[in-house]
Write a structure and sequence with these properties.
Rossmann fold, 44% helix, Universal stress protein UspA, UspA
Length: 145
């Protein structure tokens, strides 16, 4: 079975990306390795006293994101595709590429929902970083709404 790394960010295009990834996984008889990368500074805020760390904010946010990953995993499995998930913190492109190596992935599936710049509008800045640095094929799912 081929491992397919599927990074998700819980944006409004995530559902379209998941549907495309599930269809692709069925075509190649693959297993989806779902990953969400949370920012390393998720519990930090700036206030009157400068940067402050609030561990309860980080804990709550991570718990919510893990819950969302669990729901996505259930959805994928209900469509007949094997799935596992992981949440990591740090720099997205670096973590996703390392995870793909760790899972000996055959593909990385990304969405094409950019936010800025002409290239980024069609592809996405994270997707651009991944496609430039990846040693394995990157499948891009159109996620425009």
């Amino acid at each position: 079975m081929k491992n397919i790394v599927l990074p998700v960010d819980f944006s409004d295009t995530t559902d379209v990306l998941i549907d495309g990834a599930v269809d692709f996984a069925k075509e190649v008889m693959g297993k989806i390795c779902l990953i969400h990368v949370a920012p390393a500074d998720i519990g930090f805020a700036i206030g009157d006293m400068g940067f402050q760390y609030f561990p309860e904010i980080e804990k709550t946010e991570i718990a919510e994101e893990l819950s969302e990953l669990n729901e996505i995993q259930k959805r994928i499995i209900s469509k007949g595709v094997a799935c596992e998930h992981i949440l990591k913190q740090g720099i997205s492109a670096e973590i996703i590429l390392n995870y793909a190596k760790e899972k000996n992935a055959s593909y990385i599936v990304m969405g094409s929902h950019g936010r800025s710049g002409i290239y980024d509008v069609f592809v996405g800045s994270l997707t651009k970083d991944i496609t430039k640095k990846s040693e394995i094929p990157v499948v891009i799912i159109p996620c425009h709404q």
